[in-house]
Design a protein that fits this description.
The protein contains 8 helices and no strands. With about 170 residues, the chain is mainly α.
């Protein structure tokens, strides 16, 4: 009788552990370490994570590029470009020139050490980040969560139905 009881307790414990690990495996939100934002391009991973917080992703980008020079796009106009202002990297022209000189000095040192130019290394990701901001911005909730694609489609479908009803009401009947 005592052996059956021990087996029962072990099975209950095993069942409890399985349920616990299953619940832990379903947690889709990943936490990011803000201390790494300045040194590592975590914003790339966050940009590709549908559960990442929009405001935290912008913060990670801003901190990473704060002491670096953003890659310039061809035909980019700094007076009309709002991207740097939007992510909090806007600088006055004198400060920008100073940062460019400092960047050039650091890049010479990097090249001597055989390391790649970070500006060129992340140019395509910065371009993708700009596109991500434009695509995601209308779907950001107050707390920074981004509406899922399924929820976006439901909203679009509901708006389409509402517009059809309004058109039907406003269309003169013959």
């Amino acid at each position: 009788m005592n052996g059956k009881r021990q087996i029962g307790i072990k099975l209950m414990f095993l069942l409890f552990m399985c349920v616990n690990f299953t619940c832990l495996g379903q947690d889709e939100t990943k936490t990011y370490n803000p201390r790494k934002f300045r040194k590592e391009p975590i914003w790339i991973e966050m940009m590709n994570d549908p559960n990442a917080n929009y405001y935290q992703t912008i913060e990670a980008f801003r901190l990473f590029w704060k002491d670096r020079i953003l890659p310039e796009e061809p035909f980019e106009n700094h007076e009309t470009d709002t991207f740097e202002r939007e992510v909090g990297l806007e600088q006055d022209e004198e400060s920008r020139e100073e940062r460019i000189r400092e960047h050039a000095r650091k890049e010479k040192k990097r090249k001597r050490n055989g390391k790649p130019d970070e500006t060129l290394l992340y140019a395509s990701q910065v371009r993708a980040f700009k596109g991500w901001i434009k695509a995601v911005k209308p779907w950001v909730l107050e707390d920074g969560r981004i509406v899922s694609p399924e929820e976006q489609q439901k909203i679009i479908d509901a708006q389409s139905k509402e517009l059809k009803k309004i058109e039907e009401l406003n269309t003169p009947k013959k």
